[in-house]
Each structure stands twice: as structure tokens, then as C-alpha cells.
Amino acid sequence: MSATWFDHAIATVAPRMAARRVMARQAFETLTRGYDGAARGRRTEGWRAPGSSADTEIGVAGALLRDRMRDLVRNNPHAAKAVAVLVNNIIGAGIMPRAASGDDTLDRKVDALFERWTAECDADGQLDFYGLQTLICREMVEAGEVLVRRRLRRANDGLPVPLQLQVMEADFLDATKSGVLGAGRLVQGIEFDPVGKRRAYWLHAEHPGDAWGALQGGLGSHAVPATEIAHVYEKQRTQARGVPWGAPVIRSLRDLDDYEVAELVRKKTEACVTAIVFGDDEAQQGIAPSVVDADGNRVEQFEPGLIAYARGGKDIRFNQPSATGGYGDYKRASLHTISAGFRVPYELLTGDLSQVNYFSICAGLVEFRRMIDAVQWQLFIPMFCAPVWRWFTEAAWAAGQIPWPIVPVEWSPPKFEAVDPQKDAMANLLSIRSGTMTLAEVIAKQGRNPDAVLAEIAATNAKLDALGLVLDSDPRRVTKTGSAQTSDPADDEPDTDDPTADAGNDPAQADQQD
């Protein structure tokens, strides 16, 4: 900012005072500039933006958010579909583990033991491990959080591993337990030690919303060590508890419900009176207005298809409901908002593919699949799968079934279904040939165990060879073009007289030679 003529005049007699005057004016102008979003005035009047912590906000609104979202999922088809889409993509058929200790014998033993345990892992005795994943993920999305409790069993209970999992809704946490506790603190039922590590969870013996539990005095709570609990929720800030994923659009979902009800009532009201028979003006003079039905009964309530008669009626006039537009546009715009709030593509939320083509739907799914990938690897696997695997190996070791309490593991989330399977298969083939991916990675991306798949391929090939069968899909025997190989598969070099044996022209054969 340049000095004014008045500053120059002062500078002639008091240069220091003039300099301080210019610098003070510059500092004042700096304070008046900033972010438009932080400006105060008519445009931001009524905008409340408290600086409270995430735990404080969740403590006030968390229970009501859960209740409202559950009600919407029960009664609103769009909320139910959004939750289902997220769960189906995050879990699918299940996030499968594979022991990766490097000892093939141990890995096969642990994998076989885990496979047997999955069928008996549910404390309620209804779901397997992958069914529990779906239930837990659904609670995480719908209610914002879920608790999984480790339940150790006796050796004589007949389980493959003396361990089961109990899924508990977030309502089991005693949210009234907050404040200072010794050198630590309590935050909505979660106990922290002095360094901020979770030490215990204060749980109700029964669900607070269970009438039977309330009658039996089950509203008290007790501390359960944090090592016995897997708390699964999305951390958007450094909060101790989660919120429903649809929280940003709870009001939008409710408004859409109200709009549809109002539109339906309006249409029904318009359709109530089909026609009214009017009389001439002279016949109706001095007579109180009244409307009767065909039997002469006075009409006080309208219903669809009604033909009403004014007293002395001779002229009939039919009701013509007015046609109003904009319903479809409003609903489509509302569903775009709802899909954005749930982080689900509009096409997956509504099933409406009228505005997309192959390339646009592929581009739209890229970001969604990237988000799902992040949820799987940064949220669900660390918060649920990893603790459960640790509980499983510890219980198996304590039961004397494996030699070590800790066994490294690799997880395989479900594959994404290809929009164009042929293009995806060719992309995988090129990635393997170029060395950017291994065959094991491609198989794992399909949600399967690479070792099991390769063993199955070897067993199938051995059986085909023993029976003397040659399938068109066998690259050891048949070229990519479908003709028989002219060289012995055991030979290191292909027959150069056969141009189809050129590895550079035959990706499938090149894979076999590699």
C-alpha cells in the first residue's frame, strides 16, 4: 500500500511518525482480508459452526443419528439400497485370509484349521465368518459403529478352535460413562489410560432398547478389557466413536419422503371428485348450498370416483385434474444428493442407466472402487479382520494345534465384477507379461487363494494327461489360434517351423514357456 499525500506531509516534519502510520494502516488492511468462508455478514447470518470436538458432537447427536438412520433404512427404499450397495462392494462373498508364514506345511495347516473354524465362529450359531463380515459391515455403515467381542470357549465344547465371536450393536456401549477416571478418562463408555490408549469398554449386559432386558434390570454396565473387543467404525476425525455413513443426507431422505407423500395426496385429492351436477341459478336461489350422492345422501367426505349432485342439478361438469411437471426432475436431483452423501454412484443407488454409456460408467466406477479399496484395507481389515486373525492364532496355539501364537497373514478382498471381462482379462495378461504383476497377484485380485488355484490347475492338468484328453483351453497342447502344438511340451525350444509357436505372437504360449 502506497503512502498518501497526508503521509508525505507528515513525513516532512516527523518521518518516524509517518512511517508508523503507514505500517499500522497496512497491518489493519491485512486483518480485514482472509477467507470468504470465514466472513461475517448478511450472507452468513444464522450459520452456526461450533468449534466443539468430534467426541462432544457425537456425544450429543450420536444416538439420535443412529435411531433416525435405522428408521430410514427400515422404511426408505433408497436408504436401504445405499447401505446394501456399500456392504455388497466392501464385503461381497467375504474378505478371505491366507497364512503367509513362509512355511508351506504350517501355512496349509493353519488355512485348513481356519476353514473349519469359520463354520463355528458365530456365538449365535447362525452365520459363518464371512456372514459375520457382512453383518458387521452393515452395522458399521447403518449405525456408524459395531463391537465384536472375543468369546473364549472350553476345550470340551467341540469347536475346531476354542473361540467364538459375538457381534454387539453400538447401543451396548454405556454412553453415560464419561469424565475423569483416575489418571485416565472415560469417553462415552470407552476407557482410556493416561497415554490415550484404549483400556476397556463399558458394556450393558442387555441391549438398552430391549424391553425384557430393562425389566430384568439390565441397564447397568461393566468394564470389558479392550483386548477383548474389536471396535469397527470410520474415523473421519480423531473421535472415539463413529456416526452413520448416511448422516449428511438424513434430512434429504426425509424431505424426499415428505415430498412423495405430498405429491401422492395431491393426486388423490384431485381424483376424488369425478363430476358435479349443477342446477340453474333460479332453482338454487334461497336454498342453502348442499351436495348429495346418487342416493340423496348428503356428501361430507369426498372419495375417488365420486359423482356429486348439487340441489336441483341439471348441468354436469367433469373434474379435470391439472397436470403439474417437475416431479421427476426434483426426485432425480434429490437422489443425486443422496448418492453423494452415501458416496455411492447414482446409477448404483437407483439402477437408472439411461444417462450412461460403457465409458462413462467405467469412469464413474473407478473412483467408487478406489474408495471401496481404501475402506477394505485402511478400515475393515485393520479394525476387524486383523484382530480376529490374532485371536484365532492365539487360541489355536493355546490349544496346542499350531506351534506359534503369531502367524503372518495375507487378505484377499472380493474381486470387482468386470464391466467387460475380455478387456480386463487381456489387461491382466499384459500386466503379467510385462512384469508389473505376478500370476499370484492376479489370482488374489479375483478373491481366491493363489496356492489353492495353482494346485487345482496342476491336479487338473495331471488328470487330463492321465486320461489322454486335450482341451482347447490347454496352452500346453493348443496354440492361441486353436491349432495343435507341433513341438513336444517338454522341449525347451519351440518348433520354429510352426509360426504359431512364436512366443512373441502367442501370449498364452509365451506364458507357458516362461
From TrEMBL:
InterPro entries: Phage_lambda_portal. Residues 475-514 are annotated as: Disordered. This is Phage portal protein, lambda family. Residues 489-500 have a biased composition (Acidic residues). NCBIfam families: portal_lambda. It comes from the Bacteria. One of its GO terms (molecular function) is structural molecule activity. GO terms for biological process: virion assembly.
